[in-house]
Design a protein that fits this description.
By secondary structure, the chain is of the alpha+beta class. The chain has three domains: 8-59, RNA-binding S4 domain (Structural Genomics Hypothetical 15.5 Kd Protein In mrcA-pckA Intergenic Region, Chain A); 70-130 and 216-233, Pseudouridine synthase I, catalytic domain, N-terminal subdomain (Alpha-Beta Plaits, 2-Layer Sandwich); 136-210, Alpha-Beta Plaits. 22% of the residues lie in helices and 27% in strands. It has seven helices and 16 strands. It has helices spanning 10-16, 22-30, 92-96, 122-129, 149-157, 190-197, 227-233, and strands at residues 8-9, 34-36, 46-47, 53-55, 58-59, 70-75, 103-104, 113-119, 137-143, 160-161, 164-165, 170-175, 178-183, 202-210, 213-214, 222-224. The strands form four sheets. Strands 6, 7, 8, 9, 12, 13, 14, 15 and 16 form a nine-stranded mixed beta sheet that branches. Strand 12 (170-175) and strand 13 (178-183) form a beta hairpin. Helix 1 (10-16) crosses helix 2 (22-30). The relative contact order is 0.15.
């Protein structure tokens, strides 16, 4: 890992060494689980060459592998997208049980299923999740009762949730209670909150696509991404 002389911010350090995303790193720091040379850091603290970073007492250092790992998982309902193996028994890391350290790219809530990427490449996480890139994520959603055209129109134009209005998106009816939605942002439990704001409750939510990557593995199974798929996710043609 390359370190600048003046150090690297602690949350970026976690992505560079392939431990977790910056968002997950911030949560670990807030929870007091991180130490730098035995001291509790703040979010903006920098890691300098020679510093020892630990989480729960485990030293976190760059992987010695020469190549990164990229996995596509069909996550079942009940699995939590967290690397916290101590606090969450149904965590995604234990579920996949990969031979080396990996972490999920973004999240898919516990009651949702579908496509999620796991990797040890922290830099690709920021590229995929950065909202300004406008990367699409496609979902199939079933709600508890039938909806009308006004519901679809409002969903597509934007719904006021979490003190903001969601960005315009593509919504298509598939049945009286099922629709497809394509998002380019990732607010917390966004689809569920959008539906609730319009008087509907999500009973099934399945992510079927991330950018150009389609869900093509059975429920609970995973596969390695091809080199072409990885390059596509990185935006390399």
């Amino acid at each position: 890992m390359e370190n600048e002389a003046d150090g690297i911010r602690i949350n970026k350090y976690f992505t560079v060494v392939g431990y977790c995303s910056r968002r997950a790193a911030d949560k670990l720091i807030d929870a007091g689980h991180v130490r730098i040379n035995g001291q509790v850091p703040e979010k903006g603290t920098k890691v300098l060459p020679g510093d020892v970073v630990t989480v729960h007492g485990e030293i976190i250092e760059p992987s010695k592998k020469s190549q990164h790992v990229y996995i596509a998982l069909h996550k079942p309902v009940g699995i939590v997208c967290t690397t916290d193996q101590r606090r969450e028994k149904d965590n995604i890391v234990d579920f996949v049980n990969y031979s080396s350290r990996i972490f999920p790219v973004g999240r898919l809530d516990k009651m949702s299923e579908g496509l999620i990427i796991l990797t040890d490449d922290g830099e690709i996480v920021n590229h995929i999740l950065r909202e300004r890139h406008g990367h699409e994520k496609e979902y199939i959603v079933t709600v508890n009762r039938s909806f009308d055209d006004a519901f679809l129109k409002t969903m597509s134009r934007g719904v006021h949730i979490l003190d903001t209005t969601t960005r315009p998106c593509e919504v298509e009816r598939l049945s009286p209670t099922m629709f497809k939605i394509i998002l380019v942002q990732g607010l917390n439990r966004q689809i569920r909150r959008m539906c609730e704001a319009l008087g509907h409750r999500v009973v099934r939510l399945k992510r079927v696509r991330i950018m150009d990557l389609q869900l093509d593995v059975p429920l609970g199974k995973w596969r390695h991404l091809t080199e072409d798929e990885v390059q596509s996710l990185k935006g390399v043609s």
